[in-house]
Backbone:
């Protein structure tokens, strides 16, 4: 794999990094998605619905179902335990990505924060040969954070121009009929199921795109200095 994105719940990766993943697939990259829980304690939907939605959403991004993993690390119970770290280490060693994307550690959602630290620790431990999983050790080369507007005083290291794939991202999000706005789905309305939520996704993408002079952008934070050997790739 070139890129593997880890989200705490089915739909997190698509909301926060869907444009980049779809763009990477178009560029010929091998992309994988890991949902760390089944989303079983959400106000709307159930694990089976969310599994079907996750696979459909991945397909709309161009990521095949065989490149989607749904772990069962406990919605609202997600913790950075040795057993959970080993689960993530196994995934990293199985797919051997060069780049890992995951939540920001200061996200407002507790599961997002906890999954961020869990992935960061597993990222390191996956490279230690004395941690036995029956797989060769592997430590990816880079770890990048995706984040939302609720993280104060945090600016992105870079913004990805996702103008080309923004509508594809929206179509992937519409696969989550139990979670995002869908007037035909019964149940209690939530923040993300309101009709305004898709507008907020667009406003966010327009905001970050505007920072770099493009129509739609997604922000990312590097966890270590980026090595540049040719400035022309940036300008």
Residues:
């Amino acid at each position: 794999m070139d890129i593997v994105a880890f989200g705490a719940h089915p739909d997190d990766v698509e909301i926060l990094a869907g444009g980049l993943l779809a763009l990477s697939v178009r560029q010929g990259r091998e992309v994988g998605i890991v949902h760390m829980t089944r989303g079983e304690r959400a106000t709307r939907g159930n694990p089976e619905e969310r599994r079907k939605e996750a696979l459909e959403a991945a397909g709309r991004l161009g990521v095949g179902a065989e490149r989607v993993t749904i772990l069962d690390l406990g919605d609202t119970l997600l913790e950075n335990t040795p057993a959970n770290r080993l689960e993530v280490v196994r995934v990293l060693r199985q797919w051997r990505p060069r780049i890992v994307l995951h939540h920001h550690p200061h996200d407002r959602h507790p599961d997002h924060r906890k999954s961020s630290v869990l992935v960061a620790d597993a990222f390191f431990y996956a490279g230690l040969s004395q941690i036995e999983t029956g797989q060769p050790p592997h430590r990816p080369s880079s770890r990048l954070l995706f984040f939302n507007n609720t993280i104060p005083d945090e600016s992105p290291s870079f913004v990805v121009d996702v103008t080309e794939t923004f509508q594809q991202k929206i179509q992937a999000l519409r696969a989550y009929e139990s979670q995002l706005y869908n007037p035909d789905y019964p149940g209690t309305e939530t923040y993300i199921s309101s009709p305004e939520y898709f507008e907020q996704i667009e406003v966010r993408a327009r905001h970050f795109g505007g920072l770099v002079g493009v129509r739609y952008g997604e922000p990312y934070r590097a966890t270590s200095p980026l090595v540049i050997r040719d400035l022309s790739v940036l300008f």
